[in-house]
Design a protein that fits this description.
CATH superfamily of the largest domain in chain B: Bira Bifunctional Protein, Domain 2
Strand content of chain A: 5-15%
Number of domains of chain B: 2
Largest interface: A-B, 46 and 42 residues
Largest sheet of chain B: 8 strands, mixed
Order of helices and strands of chain B: HEHEEHEEEEEHHHHH
CATH topology of the largest domain in chain A: Hypothetical protein af1432
Helix content of chain A: 40-55%
Largest sheet of chain A: 7 strands, mixed
Oligomer: heterodimer
Number of helices of chain B: 8
Number of strands of chain A: 16
Distance between the termini of chain B: 55 Å
Helix content of chain B: 40-55%
Shape of chain A: flat
Distance between the termini of chain A: 44 Å
Structural class of chain A: alpha+beta
């Protein structure tokens, strides 16, 4: 039903609070939108385009073209059955205060009844807005929220002001904080803390600008662009650039209302620390960006975004302040570095005996021993030196108890790499330890060395095996040990390096190293990795049904992965050819005949060529035998996958002419069974390559 | 040097600022604690009996593992916090805080002030809250927390806690890079003026040696067990428990645990068990305190 007068208005809501954690701001914009939309839709109020903003203290939404009135509502009331006595009808009219011509007759599944269709005029939107705002605020779901003073309301941080304009008018209303305290809707907000004054908003169009005049940039994108552009200006004409860090940039956006980009200097004495240490110390504690030269070396400068209005003197003292802080931070890091490098890594390794990997999964030291056991098998697969592999495993975890990694957990592996190098361990070993935590899931940031890949993979296999054993596998949104990521890392290395191993064999050694022989756990692990491999194939743009058709093969987990991968590729290459499409149609027909003629006791029956009555049967038989021979020889031969597939597709001809000329249902039962058996054998052989019936035409 | 910026003057200014805002000015608790929060004026008082409680006090704190033999310019095993606890949390508490910076000569409008998410949790106190660390030109100078729980009990009404790290704040105000160079009294050296180092470097050295090398773990473990026993003994009488003396034992146990930790004799799984034991003590004290307040 169209809006009676079709008039529309714009709305502005701003929820002003104390500083909301940076990580929650973006998603709160989305939530505000969806809650508001839901409230409007539930009330049959139409609306137009929506814009949202968030700064540390502001969370705002502008909804344009909202109906001024809710759409008219029809409330249906059922009266007496058709043919009821006068008294009943009269009573119905009276109780609803209506006349006889207000009622209609409607058919229901229980028969015909009198109905009163009460049309209620929609309420003014401005009247229901207070209710809607209350609904939104009370249903808002923050990742973490708090109470304050006597509040019964929870918010991420105390909610201090609610600005609400509809058609540029302040809407009267309030939201309860507790039983006796309310926040009345207002028509003002606040700008930057340094300005700290009430800003009255007279028109929604001026809202963003009014705040910007008070040094508050509401729009995250605008803040981001300002940071990017100011950075470019500052670094102009020098051969240096920012070390990109989108995650850090996003976080910084949530910490500033008016970004003021500044550059400070790193004290020279700290430049001898590993660059990862400098980058991490600056980023984690101080949210500073690192700056690199054209050779990717760190330069002794850092960039940071201050939340201030630019002013020369103040900028200067802010930079000095930050430089002093950084000096303190880096002298801590320097202390850790000196302490760690003065200890023998063997002593640190010894400490691992007292550090639990996880309750029920032994110490970290035991983990390294397990890895070294497993590495014997994997070193030949990865074609790496077995003794280097062993050493890398045994030294892979000591850095977890080094001072530096205790302070900066994200430097795990990296510090191990540096410390082993300083202790004169082989280069290959240090490199592998350095990059053992790559790739992080489906990232393309792979370890550069084979030994690094191996260490990464067997460490993840050990994690998966262990946590599956103690029943901590991921479920739903819960994955506290990041096992899905571990699974993806394994799959990524498997695929990238085209490792000659079956998924089934991946876990054999790890399970042995845990002295576990449970078949169920192994099956779970295998399914888990198959899932991840399929996902990665999909990301490589292979069609889902092609992947399924190969991975639903009976015993696919026992195939070497490159074979399965090759089949997916071959199928993908020919999927659009005419020959293949025709083959698929014929094969499905074949498969259906077998399915509809399921005979239980013919598995031991052999095809008897003497019962053939036609050349079509003979041809099928010959081709089928031929296929069988080739399958036996080449089914697991990488080079022959394409040839086998081509041979299968060529069967098209004989299958087709068989269907043209032969009827399976022969009156002689022997001949009938022989024909079914003939087709059945052929189908089974074809299905050894791929479950073609899962493929879409 | 400007006398107004001396360490002792900063303490005085904070005291008088918060005193003027209606806080009970208290003195440090006389037992070793890891943070100003441990003072019964915070932990127990926010649980009652009066829903209105405002207090401010200086509190020396001990963190044995942070000792650096007086050689690190930023880390100390003994340092000062200034603690403000106001219940219920006032609506203008952030502004009250910012103005307190002005009171110690740090005009917040001349600086980059940031409220950065930092939710606080004390596993030994069973306490948690939401809040921020407050940055001034990149330096964390205070912690700000809205207390949600203490001793595992909901804090109602919610209290706001502000903790100033006094050395950090003073280093910022005096623009000093080494804590030992802080001017304590604003007097010239030749007139007997003292720096932070004059007063504390010997103490830092000796206590670092004590904390890391000389403590006797079996004696400490015995002390811990004794404190735990004493704590539960003092709460045994359900009709007339003694939560305040019992809580003293809880704080003692907590400090002993920190000493054992610094000595490096606690394994990961033992660590959890110790924390749990202290938490049980603090919870029992809090419950007894509430019972008594309601009686």
């Amino acid at each position: 039903m169209p809006n009676i007068n079709g008039e529309k208005g714009d709305l502005l809501l701003e929820l002003f609070s104390e500083e909301i954690p940076a990580r929650m701001q973006t998603s709160s914009e989305k939530q505000l939108t969806s809650l508001f939309e839901k409230s409007l839709i539930n009330r049959d109020i139409g609306y137009g385009p929506i814009t949202t903003f968030s700064s540390p203290r502001h969370l705002s939404i502008i909804i344009t073209k909202i109906d001024l009135k809710q759409k008219n509502q029809i409330i249906e009331k059922r009266g007496p059955r058709l043919g009821s006595n006068e008294k009943a009808i009269h009573g119905f009219l009276k109780s609803n205060n209506i006349q006889e011509n207000d009622i209609v007759i409607k058919d229901t599944k229980n028969g015909k009844f009198y109905f009163y269709l009460n049309q209620i005029n929609g309420i003014d939107t401005s009247e229901v807005l207070p209710e809607i705002i209350n609904e939104i605020i009370n249903n808002f779901d923050w990742p973490k929220s708090q109470r304050w003073a006597y509040s019964e309301l929870r918010w991420a941080r105390p909610l201090r002001n609610i600005l609400l304009l509809f058609n540029n008018q302040l809407i009267k209303g309030k939201v309860a904080i507790d039983k006796s305290n309310f926040l009345n809707f207002s028509n003002y907000t606040f700008g930057h803390r340094h300005v700290n004054k009430k800003i009255e908003i007279k028109s929604i169009d001026e809202y963003e600008k009014a705040l910007e005049n008070n040094y508050l940039i509401l729009d995250r994108k605008k803040r981001k662009n300002k940071i990017i552009n100011d950075t470019k200006l500052l670094l102009k004409e020098k051969d240096i650039k920012l070390l990109d860090d989108d995650y850090l940039l996003d976080e910084v956006l949530g910490l500033v209302e008016f970004p003021n980009v500044l550059i400070g200097t790193i004290d020279k004495q700290f430049m001898k620390l590993p660059k990862e240490v400098l980058i991490t110390a600056m980023k984690v504690h101080q949210k500073y960006f690192s700056i690199i030269d054209d050779k990717n070396n760190l330069v002794p400068k850092f960039l940071f975004v201050s939340n201030t209005i630019p002013e020369k003197e103040r900028d200067k003292s802010i930079i000095e302040g930050n430089e002093r802080v950084l000096k303190a931070r880096l002298s801590d890091a320097d202390f850790f570095w000196k302490t760690d490098t003065s200890i023998k890594i063997e002593n640190l390794n010894e400490k691992l005996k007292n550090v639990l990997f996880y309750e029920g999964l032994g110490s970290l030291y035991e983990k390294t021993v397990r890895l070294s056991r497993v590495s014997k098998y994997f070193s030949s697969l990865f074609k790496v030196d077995v003794s280097l592999a062993r050493e890398a495993c045994l030294l892979s975890k000591f850095d977890l108890v080094s001072e530096m990694v205790v302070e900066f957990p994200e430097l795990q592996g990296i510090m191990g790499g540096y410390y082993t190098k300083l202790n004169g361990k082989p280069n290959e070993v240090s490199k592998a330890i350095f990059e053992q935590y790559k790739p992080k899931g489906i990232s393309n940031d792979m370890p550069k060395t084979k030994l690094g890949c191996m260490l990464s993979m067997i460490d993840n296999i050990d994690n998966l095996t262990g946590f599956f054993m103690i029943n901590k596998k991921p479920s739903g949104s819960k994955d506290p040990f990041a096992l899905r990521r571990a699974g993806f890392s394994i799959a990524q290395i498997l695929m990238k390096l085209k490792l000659n191993i079956s998924i089934n064999d991946l876990f054999t050694e790890a399970l042995n190293s845990y002295k576990n022989s449970s078949k169920i756990i192994k099956l779970d692990l295998v399914d888990f990795i198959i899932d991840k491999v399929k996902f990665i194939l999909k990301k490589q743009n292979f069609r889902g049904d092609i992947i399924e058709s190969v991975f639903t093969l009976k015993g696919s987990q026992n195939y070497l992965l490159p074979i399965l991968y090759q089949r997916v590729k071959c199928l993908n290459d020919i999927k659009d050819t005419n020959d293949f499409k025709i083959f698929l149609v014929n094969f499905k027909r074949l498969n259906n005949i077998i399915k509809s003629n399921k005979l239980s006791n013919i598995s031991n029956v052999k095809v008897n060529p003497h019962l053939f009555e036609s050349s079509e049967e003979e041809k099928i038989y010959d081709k089928s035998q031929n296929l069988d021979i080739n399958l036996k020889k080449y089914l697991t031969d990488l080079e022959h996958q394409r040839i086998i597939l081509e041979e299968i597709i060529k069967l098209n001809c004989v299958i087709h002419s068989f269907f043209e000329k032969i009827i399976v249902n022969h009156e002689d039962k022997k001949i009938k069974i022989n024909r079914i058996k003939l087709l059945m054998e052929l189908t089974e052989r074809i299905l050894k390559f791929s479950s073609f019936h899962h493929m879409e035409n | 040097m400007d006398k107004n910026k001396s360490f002792q003057n900063i303490i005085m200014k904070l005291q008088s600022y918060w005193m003027d805002r209606g806080c009970v000015l208290m003195q440090p608790y006389d037992t070793q604690v890891g943070a100003g929060t441990f003072h019964p004026a915070t932990v127990l008082r926010v649980l009652g009996p009066d829903p209105i409680w405002k207090a401010a006090y200086l509190q020396p704190c001990r963190r044995p593992t942070d000792g650096r033999y007086g050689e690190n310019p930023n880390r100390l095993q003994h340092y000062y916090q200034f603690q403000v606890i106001i219940q219920p949390s006032p609506d203008n508490i952030q502004n009250l805080y910012l103005e307190s910076l002005n009171a110690v000569g740090l005009n917040f409008k001349d600086h980059d002030i940031r409220f950065v998410e930092d939710d606080w949790e004390s596993p030994t106190l069973g306490a948690s809250g939401l809040g921020w660390e407050i940055w001034c030109d990149g330096m964390e100078i205070s912690q700000f927390t809205y207390f949600q729980q203490v001793g595992g009990i909901e804090v109602k009404p919610v209290a706001s806690e502000i903790t100033y790290g006094l050395e950090r704040l003073a280093m910022f105000i005096q623009k000093v890079e080494n804590v030992y160079h802080l001017d304590w009294d604003g007097l010239d050296k030749n007139k007997g003026g003292k720096t932070y180092g004059d007063i504390f470097s010997q103490q830092e050295k000796e206590f670092s040696i004590y904390n890391f090398e000389k403590t006797n773990s079996s004696v400490l473990i015995q002390h811990f067990n004794d404190a735990e026993k004493e704590c539960s003994f003092l709460l045994e009488d359900k009709i007339n428990p003694l939560p305040l003396p019992a809580y003293d034992q809880c704080i003692k146990a907590s400090h002993i645990f920190n000493l054992l930790d610094a000595r490096g004799v606690i394994s990961v799984s033992e660590r959890q068990a110790y924390i749990l034991r202290v938490r049980n003590m603090s919870r029992s004290c809090c419950l007894a305190w509430i019972d008594k307040s309601n009686a």
